[in-house]
Amino acid sequence: MKKLPLHVKIIIGLVLGIIWAFISSALGWNQFTIDWIDPFGQIFIRLLKFIAVPLVLFSIIDGVSGLNDTSKLGRMGAKTLGLYLVSTVTAITVGLLIVNFIAPGSHIDDAQRMKNRISYELWVQNTPGVEVKDGKNFLNDPAYAGLVMEMSDGQELAAQQQTVEDKVALAKKQKEVPPLQFIVDMVPENIILSISDNKLMLQVIFFAIFFGITLAVVPNDKGAPVKNFISSINEVFLRMVDTIMAAAPFFVFALLAGVVAKMADSPAEVFQIFRGLGSYTITVLIGLGVMLFAFYPLVTSTFIKKISYKKFFKILSPAQFLAFSTSSSAATLPVTMECVEDGMGVSKNVSSFVLPIGATVNMDGTSLYLAIATVFLAQLHFVDLSLSQQLVIVLTATMGSIGTAAVPGASLVMLIIIIQTVGLNPAWIAIIFPVDRILDMTRTVANITGDATVATLIASSEGELRAED
Fold it and tell me: In this predicted model, which residue has the larger pLDDT, 271 or 225?
């Protein structure tokens, strides 16, 4: 067992965690799992999160201050943002092509879809400033008079859910911010407060880059002690990551056991949840699969000959399985950096700059999911979104992914913004709640794989990639 590679141990822990959760639900041991096993999974996430911010801070300062040519930083920054933009738009485009081809929302019973359509038109009727998107009107069709009466007497359950209302309010607040607020928010008012809040990672990155550039231009006799101090602290945090990862298989077991145990009280309930949203879930997984098993490895192996298709996954698998179990790009960041540096051969100068930015602004899996979820919900309600409306999804998802926090569940707020932008009912997000957790885990894998791919390509273009096999 000791000789097995780390990624194999993590897979074993992941599978055993899921098996345990199903056994415990079948035997009525769910509460025991939640009380005595799940806490270790939560400890694992906390350990990774508390290391992520200081590791980002010191690794960026260490990398940037070591650049002899500070103009290289600007060039590398432009490449980073450009490649992240390309990968995000690619992911959204793949999502839209697949969801329009499979049309998962049309696989539901037509009678139920028509009820959904009537409820949508009633919502439009009672919501000022909103119009029916496809120009159709079933409310005035005599053939549906009885259905309209039935739907008018009831209320949508989703609209009554407090979680939806809270997220709608948060999304509305986010939509009302000025267009340049994103840039303003990058500059910290108090770096201590920024470091203490995982949601303010961009401010930490801004400070670290600014500090690193300044340290690089300070005379060596003054700056050398600080550089050595920063480098030493960075090394300590890297060793902490190694220590935590040694116990990762057990932690992953506890985390997955807790996740599944909280989903339902019996295995039948878990299967029931996924059967109702099966076509949607499969569509998202196909889209993510195209990015994970085609786009990223093929692009990498095409431009970097030493990294074969098989080697690509062998190197990144520890970070990928960890991303799946934590659902957090930020929590996985320390391990992603380690895989990219030790396995891909990317220099610390590049990885410490590109990957923290990617964990904050590059959300390929999330962007693809947002596109598919929006079109699926429209299809589910017999709403035909035009090409121009789907292009709005591309634009909104691209810009929105930049501000999406690298933590579990944050994408639901972004989904509400996109749904509102194309004139649909934001309360519909409650429909996909049951499977969101599992899909969140999967799309996080795509997020960190996209980050690693971009970091490797940039390192190759900058001559910062080790030549050995």
Answer: 225
